[in-house]
Each structure stands twice: as C-alpha cells, then as structure tokens.
Amino acid sequence: MAALYSLSDNPVIVLLILLAYLVPLGLLVFRLFLSPLARLPGPWLTRISSIPEANALRDQRRTAWVNELFEQHPGAVAVRTAPWSVSFNTPEAVKAIYGHGKGADEFGKSSWYDAFSTTGESLFSTRSKKRHAAKRRMVAHGFSAQSLLSFEPYVDKTLDRFIRRMDKFAASGHPFDIYFWYELFTMDLMGELALGNNFGVLVAGKPAGYSTLVEQSQRFANTSGLLPFGKWNVKILSWVPTTYIQNLYRARLEYLDYAKVALEQRFSDNAKSEKRISGKPRQDIMQRFIDGQDPETGAKMGFDELRAETSSLMVAGASTGSVTMNWMTYYLCKNPEIKSRIITQLEDMFPENKTGDDSLPYTQLQHLSLLEHAEIESLRMHPPIGYAMPRDTPPKGAIISGIYIPGGVSVGVPAATIGRDATVYPDPNTWNPDRWFKGEGTNLALMKNCFLGFGYGSRQCIGRGVATQFVMKMMARVLLRYDVQLEDQTLMLKTKEFTILKPDKKYNVILKRREDVRL
Q1: Is domain 35-518 annotated with CATH 1.50.10.10?
Q2: What is the C-alpha separation between 352 and 151, in angstroms, rounded?
Q3: Which candidate, 364, 415, 409, 344, places its Cα nearest to that of 385?
Q4: Residue 403, SS3 per DSSP
Q5: Cα-atom radius of gyration of the chain, to the nearest Å?
Q6: In the chain, where the domains are located
Q7: 3-class SS at 391?
Q8: 3-state class of 128 per DSSP?
C-alpha cells in the first residue's frame, strides 16, 4: 500500500491514472453526441456498443432487426447498427459502396471478413483487392461455360438419385418435406463437385454430420465479426467461457478438420488416377482450384489455401442452392398460372422428354427465361444472406446518399431490405417473375442494379453460373415429371435466420406423376 501512495506523489503517474478514466469517458461522449454518425437513427445503445446486433444474431433475427430499424424510421436512407457500422437502403448506396472504386475512393472489405479466413484466405474472405484478383484469375476458367458442361454429368447423376426418391413419394401419395430433400441433394452434389465424392445422404435419407458443423461454424464467424479487434476477433471470441460460444467454436474446429481430411483424400484419389492409363483426375470444381495458376505469376494455391476454399465452397453451394429451390417450389405452387406457363415452355422445348425421364441439357434450359426469372424473383424476396455485406469507407470518408460517413466506418446495403424497396420494385411483397421482362413498366436497369442475391460487382459470387445451372435443371425436371401441390393450400411461409434465411416452419408437398394426372 505504501508503494501505491508513493506512486500517487508522481505527477506523471497521476496524469496517466486520470487519462485512464478520462479517455474512455471522452470516447463515450464523442460516440454519443459528437460523432458525425450521432445523428443517424438507430437504438441509442448502437452508438457505443455492438450488443444489440449481437443479440439479434444470437436470436436468429439479425436481418429482421435491421429491417425493423428502417421501418421505425420511415424515409431514413441509413440506420446505425453499431458504433462504427451503418446500413443503407438506397440504389445510390449500392453503387457507391459495391461499385468499382479505385485508389483513395475504394471501399475495402471490412474486418468482418477476417473471421471467415480459416486456414487461409478464400475468394470470399480475402480483403485484399490484389489477392482477390489473383485468386479470381487462377480459377475463373473453372466457372466458364465450358466448365459448366464438364460439371453437368455430376449434376445429372445426383439429380437421378433425387428423382428415384421422388418417384417413391409420388407412388405412395404421402405428403413429405421437399425442402429436406433439396438439402440432401445439394449436400451430395457439392460433395461431388468440391470433394470428388458424394456423402451418400440421398441414399441414406438423412443429412451428413458436417451440415450441422457448417451452420454452427458460420454462426461463430458472424459473431466474432462483430467484435472490434480486427484479425484478433476469432481468437478473442474463442476465449469467451460461455457454453454457447464454446459449442460454436468447437464446431468450427471440427468442420476445418473435416475439410482437411476430405481434401487429403482428394489428393490421394488424384494420385491414384494419375497412375491409371488415362492419367487424368476427375474434372470438377475442386480440380479447377487444384490446377489453377495465376497467368501472370504462375503461382498455385497451397494446401491450407485449398482447404479454406473447400470450406467456403461447401457453405456457398449447398445451403444457398437448396433454400432457393425451396422458395421457387413454394411460390410456383402459390402461382399455378406461372407454373403452367413454365411447364408448357418445357414441353415445347423437350417434346421427346415430356415426362422428365431423361436429363435436360443446360445449354437449352438457358433459353427458358421465365424459369430463370422465377429463380431471380425468389432470390430478390429471399436472399440467402439478408444482412449487409460490410465495406469500410475510404480513409478520407465518403458521401453516401447525401450523408457524410467518416473514414474506416463499416457500411453496406442489406440484400433483404433493398430487395423489398417499393421505389425499386413496385408491389415488392408480391412474387412476380414477369417484372423482370423489360421491367413491366418499371426501371429494369435499376432493379438489376439493386439485385444483391449473388452479390455485386467484382466481388459477385463466382459460382453463380454453377448455382443457376443445378437450380434450373432441378426445377425443370421436377416440373416436367410431377404435379406439385402444397399439402396446406393456405400455407403462408415467412423467414427465420440461421446462417442463411430459411423458411420459418416445415411444410409438406404432395407429388403425383403428371402422366398419371393426365390419364
């Protein structure tokens, strides 16, 4: 104690002690009243803490929470969601934040993405524009039209297994949860494309253990992304001694270990293939990543980087594709006139395959615009990721939709919010694929600019073509082969947020072979 009293006689020590108390107090006053963001609408607690957003994430309603903030402040173009985080809801903000800024005007990816870098940076998680460009150069050819053709046999093989299961449901006439089977289909398909082998879940009729790990791992990353410690977010959150956080962290570690084992098996399989006469490994998405080289430097991805890409691919492909097919099925059942038009177009396109017995080439399906518009409209209303993909304002700050935002502030436009903006999409809560035909009296260019179902600009999802391919092939074949009806014709689905936005309840459909219905 005597030592402490003697320290208090030192004016430097006294000053430091005063500063230890005054700096946090000054920062608090600044954030509450003096910050340029202080006048933005939002809960007062968001001026000093990320707790409201973290609580919304924990309660699986983060997207709904942001939407409610805009509803509580009609006419607001932006709301404050954390001390240094702002969500916008205007077409101008979409272009300003996600457009092709350069140099001092560029909006870079925020530290939120660091939480999604696992054993290395993936195309999704890397914050460096230079590294992202290099990665994209390495694998761009793997998502070309020619590559889609090489992937199609894997899609057809998996789809055949799915159809055999659906035939049994059609024969029995029993109601069943088709979304569950869409999820199994995408699990098996992404296993084929990303790992070189399916999980056997369609045959088993139950999900693989990894699917739960994916969900929990992504929730851990989302939570850590809300912390203010940058690249240390993941490590610091892993120290939080609550059961909830520790369970999520263990799931992350287990999932990464799973990806490691799966990738090691893939390299082993490749080595065996090269010893055969053909000497050529199977040509799927992962092989494109393994073989990919930067055309400028000749660099290739190392094992840890490939492991990170594997983890990212499994999340991006499986979860988003299945939920999109779910919403398409639901809305097509609710809109029989549009469903009938698509079936007529399919029958005209495939007169020798009106029962959907055989595969439907994607090169032809690409010309069926109504079916593609049904997919886009479903993604507009129910984007898999509903909250904003954050970007940091440039160091000198930026004016976004007439509002000055200081440098280093995390900003973004929530896909689920702008997708229901009545100034962009008239009657936004009505599912209407026809709105995408020349805009149907609206500004088609504006609608496309605000569509964030696959991201925007140079960071748009590189796998968009793959996803559209298997979604359209699935929906086309199901519609040709079966009469699909909701068990409960009065069903009204809403959304609940897991890592992605899913239906808020389970529901059943009834399938009948269309040839039986015609008889």
Answers
A1: no
A2: 24
A3: 415
A4: strand
A5: 25
A6: 35-518
A7: strand
A8: coil
Contact 411, 391 (CB under 8 A): yes
Count of residues making up the chain: 519
Alpha helices in 9-108 (DSSP H): 11-29, 51-58, 62-72, 91-98
The tens place of each residue's pLDDT in the chain, 519 residues long, gives: 444 344 445 565 455 544 444 446 666 666 666 678 888 999 988 888 888 998 898 888 999 999 999 999 999 999 999 989 999 999 999 999 998 666 556 898 888 888 888 877 888 888 888 888 888 887 777 777 777 888 899 999 999 999 999 999 999 999 999 999 999 999 899 888 877 778 888 999 988 777 778 788 888 888 888 888 878 888 988 998 989 889 999 988 888 888 788 788 877 777 666 555 455 677 777 888 888 777 778 888 888 888 888 777 776 766 788 999 999 999 999 999 999 999 999 999 998 887 777 889 999 999 999 999 999 999 999 999 999 999 999 999 999 999 999 999 999 999 999 999 999 999 999 999 999 987 555 689 899 999 999 888 767 777 788 889 999 999 999 999 999 999 999 999 999 887 789 999 999 999 999 877 655
397 token code pair: 């700050």
Q: Where does residue 123 rank: exposed (0-12), middle (13-18), buried (19+ CB within 10 A)?
A: buried
Q: Which residues contact 219 (CB under 8 A, 6 or more apart)?
A: 57, 248, 498, 499
Amino acid at 396: K
Cβ pair 299, 134 in contact under 8 A: yes
Q: Is 461 annotated as a binding residue?
A: yes
Query: What is the DSSP track for 497-514?
Result: ESSSEEESS---EEEEEH
Distance CA 240, CA 247 (A): 11
**Sign (positive or negative) of CA dihedral 381, 386, 388, 390:** negative
- Scored b (16 or more CB within 10 A) or e, 335-348 reads beebbebbbebbee
pTM for the predicted model, two decimal places = 0.88
Three-class HEC string of 262-312: HHHHHHHHHHHHHCCCCCCCCCCHHHHHHHCCCCCCCCCCCHHHHHHHHHH
How far is residue 122's CA from residue 390's CA, in Å, rounded to a whole number? 17
Angle between helices 303-334 and 336-349 (to 10 degrees): 110
In the 8-state DSSP scheme, what is residue 68? H
**Contact (Cβ atoms closer than 8 angstroms) between residue 414 and residue 382:** no
